[in-house]
Amino acid sequence: MTSDYPAIRAEDMEKYSAAVTLSDMEIFIFPELLYSLLLANIMSPLIWEWKKDAWFKNMQKLTPYRKILRLKQFIMDNYDFNLDLETWGLTDKETELARFRQFMDEEKISKSNALFGYEGDKYYFSVDIRKHFGLDKYTSNIIPYWKTETIEAMDAFKFKPGYAKGAGECVSLSALYAAALFVVCQIPLEKIFLLATPLHSQNFIDINDGILTNNRRIVTKNMWFNGTELTAKAQRAMRHEQITIVAHNTGYVHVVYPRATMDNRVYEKFEKKLKRFLVTELDSEILYNFLRQESHLQICFQMEHLYNGKKRYIGAEKAYAYEHTSSFRLNDHTRENLFAEIDEYDFFAEPLANRICLNKLEDFFKNHKVNFDDKKSLDRLVQELDCTHIRKNEILNALFEFCHLTPRLPEKAKKFVKNPAVGITPEMSREEIIACLESLRSASTTADLAFYAYRDFSRTNWEPFIKAAVERNPVAVEGCKNLTEDEVLSMLESMPEQSIYAGPRVAQPDEVWNYGRGDGLEKAVFFASVLKNRNRGLSFDLVLDNDLTMLYLPGKTLRWDSAKGLKGKVSIG
Q1: Beta-carbon neighbour count of residue 206 at 10 Å?
Q2: What residues contact residue 484 under an 8 Å CB cut-off, 6+ apart?
């Protein structure tokens, strides 16, 4: 192989080729890749174009929080969440375990990664994971290639049938959010932490009391405790899963590996801030939010309402039921409006037996807040609850869990090694950022891998890209399964001569197949991948000569026009 960059060491080839495919399982094995994807998005011209959009006009006048709200709506409007099996295809446990055996013990992989048997904590034990994701129709060893998309691949979903806009899975959306927070909202990288769990990925932004991104949405501390169904869904990963990776511009901490590259002082500070975000004191507002989420406990409570000078009572479950179809709420100034909408027959003239009166607790909370770490304040709450109530302990335990979540972070008992921080700032231009990352490559594996995730043939060795193209593009191979070689060529010929990546950046075969377009170089790589998967013993050369790509096969030569402007040779054998 010839290119302007030196050969990749054999022991690093799997990691560098994984930077091209960026599947969820590869990021779990090679944690540097999570931040490399973020840096690839930051380098992308597409995200810098967002700054010119009218939606972000006068952003400099907004507070950081208002900037993030503006960004959230832009992402909601322009991207869908996508996690199907068809987009990036399937592989099997045996193949992937063989790939990763030299990097991580099989038992550790199975206990920590959702694709290899992990089913999470108590929540996930009640969910059939394979059925949930549509894998139950395959044998148990089949697992999905959930590849994390760059911003280009996310935007290109609009070319797929049935999609009207961009799309991506949770890791893609978290990396997109983080890049946009930096480029568009000008939030420093020091304040952005990427969090991965076995079944999810999100970010923690260290501004105000903290903000979590969750797929397309954001969650503030107030929202975390609002008791809505959307928030309950956003909490699932944090409540039920081990956080496997925390990534930052100073490095990463991984749940399995004893070595960590993040600044240990930064990690300790992050841990304290995340824990503060997930804890609140109990007051009447939080109590009502709690009952909104834990609806099965509403039957333990009632509300008193003064109507025409007389007291009347209603079961909490009835009152909350009316919230579903109303713009009014029980725990704010619109309560009286909500009560006015409730049918007269749902009220009773006498208190309901064996129910705790929420109004009484409201009076208590006017003078007290309950801190679950303070025994005295907790004892005062116990006294206020009806001590004969048979579900009192269940209510208290559920309240504690609602108000007090301890995240399962990678332990701090790691060997923290010094790692060069990614020192780019929001004040830099895109060109200055790329130059800075280029200068870090010899000292920072994360910065070096970012250019492979970025798919830049002018700044990388080509061997990892070709390895990934041949070995890990099952959708293109499966799609051409019943086509002859001539039919494959005809299909490629009919595609628009258009790459989803600008300049010398190159799409993988599955991207060409999914989005139905490609530069001549990308079509040549696509055809080479199909041929190689049909005949593993086949050897051939791919030659790039500026505006021409040639594939030298036994007995014939194929030619495609290319706009990538690259020169070099790849031997595939």
Answers
A1: 18
A2: none
1 confidence band (pLDDT: 50, 70, 90): very low
For the record, the structure tokens of 392 come out as 């009192």
Range 214-224 average pLDDT: 96
Per the CB < 8 A criterion, the answer to whether 263 and 250 are in contact is yes
What is the chain's percent helix, strand, coil content, to nearest 5?
A: 45, 20, 35
Q: What is the DSSP string of 130-167?
A: HHHTT-TTS-TTEEE--BPPPHHHHHGGGGSTT-SSEE
CA atoms in the 13 A half-sphere facing the CB of 169: 21
Hey, is 188 helix, strand or coil?
coil
DSSP assignment string, 414-442: SEE---------TTS-HHHHHHHHHHHTT
Bridge partner list, 220: 211
d(CA 460, CA 454): 10
Q: At what angle do helices 392-403 and 284-293 cross, to 10 degrees?
A: 100
Q: Whole-model pTM?
A: 0.93
311-336 in b/e burial notation, b at 16+ Cβ within 10 A?
A: ebbbbbbbbbebbeeeebbbbeeebe
Query: Which residues on adjacent β-strands are paired with residue 301?
Result: 356
Residue 4 has pLDDT above 80, yes or no: no
Read off the amino acid at residue 144.
P
> What does the DSSP assignment read for 308-344?
TTEEEEEEHHHHHHHHTT-S--TTSTTHHHHHHHS-G
Residue 74 and residue 450: Cα distance in Å, rounded?
A: 25
Q: Are 81 and 168 in contact (CB under 8 A)?
A: yes
The Cα 166–Cα 171 span in angstroms is 15
d(CA 9, CA 420): 21
Largest CA distance in the chain: 98
CA pair distance 502, 189, nearest whole angstrom = 26
Task: Give the integer Cα–Cα distance in Å for 390 and 413.
Answer: 43
Does residue 510 contact residue 88 with C-beta atoms inside 8 Å? yes
Domain boundaries, the chain: 10-279+408-453, 284-403, 473-572
Given a cut of 90, whether residue 291 has pLDDT beyond it is: yes
> Across the strands, what pairs with 356?
301
